[in-house]
């Protein structure tokens, strides 16, 4: 019943704010990203070079985070049966919102690599708390109202950070298909591996110009 309680809690003014944030997630996310870029340009801070092989801790960390994020998004999108159920197979046994988990890992890689890792981490955490946490609450309320008979199925599953203890169940229930991953736009996240280092190089070029 906890899940339905969460859904009911979205009534009133707080629920209105949460829905407002949900509906404007792309815009609000862009504000955080552009704000971080503006800060780096203002302070003239050099972005991390992700194209030149490096053994620094930050270089390896960023690539590990980004690749993990892309992999999680693809795994999640390949199991998702959108608008047909509350998905509880594969990675959905580990975390309620694997697509957001994957996306946020990619964003974390960006914020850490753009030129100010500490500031980037703070901005990233603010974005998670102010934008993505309310978005997840709103989506859970929507799913609970659309599939009330399934709403309690994933109450025990963490909202954002995967629980490895459920890995055996994830493997047992796996139903990944590339067609589902393509249909749910998971495969396009592979472009991140190419576009992020190129964007950082473009940012570096812009700093040299100005």
Notes on the protein architecture:
- The protein has 210 residues and is mainly alpha-helical.
- It is 66% helix and 0% strand.
- It is built from 9 helices and no strands.
- α1 (2-8) crosses α6 and α3 (25-43) runs antiparallel to α6.
- Mean pLDDT is 91; it is low at 1-9.
Beta-strand percentage?
under 5%
pLDDT averaged over residues: 91
Q: Nearest-angstrom radius of gyration?
A: 18 Å
Q: Give start-end ranges of low-pLDDT stretches.
A: 1-9
Number of strands: 0
Main beta sheet strand tally, sense and closure? none
Proportion in helices: 55-70%
The DSSP helix count reads 9
Query: What is the succession of H and E elements?
Result: HHHHHHHHH
Distance between the termini: 57 Å
Shape: globular
User: By helix and strand content, what is the structural category?
Assistant: mainly alpha
Topology:
Elements: H1 2-8, H2 12-23, H3 25-43, H4 57-79, H5 98-113, H6 117-146, H7 167-172, H8 178-183, H9 191-209
Label this structure with key terms.
210 residues, disordered N terminus, mainly alpha
Task: Write a short abstract of this structure.
The chain is mainly alpha-helical and 210 residues long. Helices cover 66% and strands 0% of the residues. The chain has helices at residues 2-8, 12-23, 25-43, 57-79, 98-113, 117-146, 167-172, 178-183, 191-209.
